[in-house]
Amino acid sequence: MGVILKRLFTLLIVCCFSQAGANNLSNSNAEDFYRLSGKLIERNKLVLTYNIDHCCYIYKRSLSFNSLVAGAEISNVIFPTALQHKDEFFGDVEVYRGKLVIKMDVEISQAHQKLGALKLAAKHQGCSDEGICFLPEDNILNFSFLPGLD
Amino acid sequence: MRNVWIALIVILSIVAGALLGNMGPKIDERAVKSAQIAQFKDLSGSWRRLSDWDGSYRIVNFWATWCPPCLEEIPLFIALHQEFIDINMTFIGIAVDDVERVRDFVETNRVNYPVLVGSGDALRISEAFGNQRSGLPFTVFLSPDGTLIDTHSGVVPASKIREFAAKIR
Asked: Does the model's ipTM exceed the 0.85 cut?
């Protein structure tokens, strides 16, 4: 009897873990599917990385990046080659999946050469392969031009 | 024998977990009722709420012009709205979008049912109906007294709407 109880208890524990896993998946939202990070390389080179969940993709045309501080502008954005995707309504469009690395320059005006930080707005929009699309999302990233303050 | 038990436990756990996970979110009935008195502008600029259609079965579709699967299913809604015009059921679109883009789409595609427009607030309303992932399209099936009958995330199959209509007839 004790052995059966022990096994039932084990079953209960594993069941709880399975349930937790199932709930985590169904509770996921756009923020979980598109994780963005960024790194400032030197004073004027920025590298952004989107880690896109295997379920989803981002439309290339939805990507935009803007500086939110006076005196700093984003320029020369370099996108990797995109994948072709056929949309019922939008026709052939370019999308990204998996790891997306985007490089760009930060141009700082002469009058703002002592600028210490950059605030960047990064916009994207994407959908999942099961036919669900997510609201265009703005991420705000902060970078410090001073070493160690990122 | 021990290995058989372990295998059995793992299989049962996965099945139980999957079943429990598919039971869907617990819906807060009060939030569902509150969602139906939230106001959105229609394309003529008048404030409307879902409760304005109390007394009718409602198929409420949250959509956007930037969402390809949303646009894919709208012709079906247009056709079914016409097909079931004689029963007590209406389609209502709630666009999470810019009003001008919605107006263009509605006019170009001759959408024949009421369309309301919201922004992030419309998405919050869809979440009250159980749109856990905050994705579009998301469709809600309401009874005449506003009770939530069913929801669907993604493109709704025509069969699901036909079954809903058949129960109303």
From this structure: no
DSSP string, A42-91: TTTEEEEEEEE-TTEEEEGGG-EEEE-STTEEEEEEEPPPPEEEEETTTE
Q: Do B66 and A133 touch (CB under 8 A)?
A: yes
Any chain B CB within 8 A of the CB of A70?
Answer: no
- Nearest by CB: A90 against B13, B68, B123: B68
DSSP state of B27: P
What is the tens place of the pLDDT at every residue in A26-65? 556 677 899 999 999 887 899 999 999 999 999 999 999 9
Element (H, E) at A11: helix A2-27
CB pairs under 8 A between A and B: 97
What would the pLDDT profile of B73-127 be if each residue is shown by its tens digit?
A: 999 999 999 999 999 999 999 999 999 999 999 999 999 999 999 988 899 999 9
| pTM for the model | 0.80
Q: How far is A134 from chain B (nearest CA, A)?
A: 5
